[in-house]
C-alpha cells in the first residue's frame, strides 16, 4: 500500500512542476509583474497590441537563465503594465552559435 501511495505522489509531481500561470500585464503595476516573475520563476503575460487593434499579445517571461533551455539565455526586454509602457523583464532568446562557440546577442 505504501508503494502505491508513493508511486501516485511521484506521478503527480511532474505535472505540477510544468504548470505556468497566466496574468494580464496591464492589470498590474510594473513592480507587481516583476514580483510575480521573481516568485514563480516563469509566467505568461498577456496584453493588447498597441499597434494592431484587437490583437492579443502574450509571451513567457522568466526570472533567470535557469528557466531557459541550454541553447538560450535570459535576455532583457520590456512589457507594458498599468503604470508604464516599458517594464523591464527577461525572456529566453536563442544564443547565436558559430562552430562550438556560443555568443549572446541581446537587445
Structural notes for this entry:
With 107 residues, the protein is of the alpha+beta class. It has one domain. It is built from two helices and seven strands, in the order αβαββββββ. The protein has helices spanning 2-17, 30-40, and strands at residues 22-24, 42-48, 56-62, 72-79, 87-94, 96-98, 101-103. It has a three-stranded mixed sheet, with helices on one face. The longest helix is centred in the N-terminal third of the chain and has 16 residues, at 2-17. The model has no long low-confidence stretch (mean pLDDT 84). Residues 1-19 form the signal peptide.
How many individual β-strands? 7
Structural class: alpha+beta
CA-based gyration radius: 18 Å
Portion of residues within helices? 25-40%
Report the sheet-strand fraction. Answer: 35-45%
Number of helical segments with 4 or more residues? 2
Gross geometry:
globular
> What is the mean pLDDT?
84
Give the count of structural domains.
1
User: Largest sheet, if any?
Assistant: 3 strands, mixed
Distance between the termini: 55 Å
Keywords: Signal
Signal peptide: 1-19
Keywords summarizing the entry:
single chain; 107 residues; alpha+beta; 3-stranded mixed β-sheet; two-stranded antiparallel ribbon; 7 strands; 25% helix; globular
Summarize the structure.
Residues 1-19 form the signal peptide. Keywords: Signal. The chain has one domain (20-97).
Draw up the topology in text.
Layout: H1 2-17, E1 22-24, H2 30-40, E2 42-48, E3 56-62, E4 72-79, E5 87-94, E6 96-98, E7 101-103
Parallel strand pairs: 1-2
Antiparallel strand pairs: 2-3, 4-5, 6-7
Amino acid at each position: 500500500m505504501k508503494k502505491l501511495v508513493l508511486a501516485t505522489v511521484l506521478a503527480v509531481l511532474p505535472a505540477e512542476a510544468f504548470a505556468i500561470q497566466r496574468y494580464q500585464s496591464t492589470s498590474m503595476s510594473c513592480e507587481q509583474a516583476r514580483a510575480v516573475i521573481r516568485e514563480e520563476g516563469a509566467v505568461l503575460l498577456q496584453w493588447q497590441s498597441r499597434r494592431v487593434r484587437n490583437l492579443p499579445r502574450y509571451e513567457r517571461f522568466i526570472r533567470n537563465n535557469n528557466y531557459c533551455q541550454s541553447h538560450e539565455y535570459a535576455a532583457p526586454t520590456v512589457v507594458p503594465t498599468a503604470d508604464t509602457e516599458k517594464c523591464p523583464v527577461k525572456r529566453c532568446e536563442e544564443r547565436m552559435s558559430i562552430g562550438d562557440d556560443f555568443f549572446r546577442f541581446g537587445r
